[in-house]
Amino acid sequence: MILDKTADGTGIDSNTLALQMKGHPELRDKLHVVTSWGPLPVYPGVVNSELPEDLKTSITRHLLNMHLDPKWQAQLNQNMVSKFVPVTLDQYQGLLK
């Protein structure tokens, strides 16, 4: 929208912007960051609370360990992610006020 001039400004997640800049370096000359908030905690991964506990545990374990597998580490690297780490709701309390 910015590039085709249908909007003069917008908000964008910094990780999304960084990934786009990595894949399209020409954007550096076309976009200007006017302000930024943060640092903020990363976005949490969430699942339906009604899933069976063993499935929730399995999903969590796989996400937290995927960086140990070279195949998955390569996929994470492509998206500028080094690994997943555990978070708690306490880390988001300041944002909820």
What does this molecule look like?
It is a single chain. Helix content is 37%, strand content 0%. The chain has 97 residues and is an all-alpha fold. The two termini are 32 Å apart.
Layout of strands and helices, then pairs:
Layout: H1 14-23, H2 53-65, H3 70-78, H4 93-96
Q: Are there runs of 5+ residues with pLDDT below 50, and where?
A: none
Count of DSSP E strands? Answer: 0
Strand residue content: under 5%
Average of pLDDT: 89
Shape type = extended
| Whole-angstrom Rg | 17 Å
Through-space gap between termini: 32 Å
Structural class: mainly alpha
Largest sheet, if any? none
Domains (count): 2
Pfam families: Phosphonate-bd
Based on the model shown, name its key terms:
single chain, 97 residues, mainly alpha
Give a short overview.
The protein is an all-alpha fold and 97 residues long. The chain is built from 4 helices and no strands.
